Amino acid sequence: MTAKPDSATLIFDLLKKNPRGLNILQIAEKTGINRMSAGRHLDVMAAQGLIDIQMVGNAKVYFLSKRIPVTTYMEYTSKHYCITDSSLNVVQLNKWIPDTVGMAEEDFIGRFLPETLEGVVVNVDECRVAMERALAGEAGTVIVEEDFRGTHKFFEILHMPVQFPDGSLGMMAVSQDITDKKKLEIALREEEKFYRDLVEHIPDTVFSADAEGRITYISPRIAEYGRAPDELSGKPFFDIVVPEDQKAVLTGFAATLKKGTATGIRFRIADKKGRVAWIEGSFMALTDAAGACTGINGVLRSVPGQPR
Q1: Which of 49, 129, 256, 293 could form a disulfide bond with 262, CB atoms 3.0-4.6 angstroms apart?
Q2: At 170, phi and psi to the nearest 5?
Q3: Does residue 190 sit within a domain?
């Protein structure tokens, strides 16, 4: 014998066949469920995110939800989800947050969320501000630094306002583990600082220029020739070359673009007061994956025996 569908299934299937919605009297009549029982089932289904409710006059009209229920999404996503009430007490979460901070899921429910993060999240005060703003209707993102049992992690957390089926307000925090990305950024910054410190302490002047010959970086050694790095950034490299020698530099740049490198390019550079110094330049082309030139790196060295 075929099992009789339960009341929730009957209501769900009925609303699926009636996308324009039905009121409670129509649902009770078409399913054979009494009005009071139908109302209880509809309230539960609304709380689960399975149906939507719209007021038409004084009557409630029920529709099958076109959204993925949060409860379903939370269980299957790899992101961390936590929902609080208007007092920031936890009412719902998926398993990722308890796993992350080493607490049982049931220990979270009903607790003040900022309190559970104390001693785990380094910038917990910043998190709390974002939570309170979400309760006030303002969504915002915070990069959270977590230090738990010797494990250092980073999370990007979106805090957003939510409204429960009964009309009360709450807050949802959605977090994404960005530890690998953040550690890579830190490593790159440290590597960049290492090489920049190295470049700035060698006896020669090092520079970079874009494909149009505008200076994008020049080391502090350029000050020995009466120029400041800040004043040259974004300026054409030829601005520091005396007019009579610009052709030699242009030839050197052209050779660099054609062959990839050019060395032994001699020319004079001038400071603001017109004093000149002889320089020997070595240039190297920078190219992208397609082989197109994106800029030039170079080293400028004083020519021994010539005035500086």
Answers
A1: 256
A2: -155, -170
A3: no
The residues facing 278 across adjacent strands are 268
Q: Which one-letter amino acid corresponds to residue 148?
A: F
Establish if 177 belongs to a structural domain: yes
Helix ranges, 78-208 (H):
96-101, 105-108, 113-117, 124-135, 179-200
Burial of 289 (0-12, 13-18, 19+ CB in 10 A): exposed
User: If you ran DSSP here, which 8-state letter would residue 120 be given?
Assistant: T
Tell me how long the chain is. Answer: 308
Q: What proportions of the chain, in percent to the nearest 5, are helix, strand and coil?
A: 40, 35, 30
Average pLDDT of every residue of the chain = 83
Please tell me which residue, 9 or 107, carries the higher pLDDT value.
Answer: 9
For 7-36, what is each residue's pLDDT tens digit? 888 898 898 888 889 999 999 999 999 988
Residues 11 and 103 in one domain: no
Domain ends where: 38, 64, 90? 64
Tally of CB atoms within 10 A around 188: 10
Higher pLDDT, 268 or 201: 268
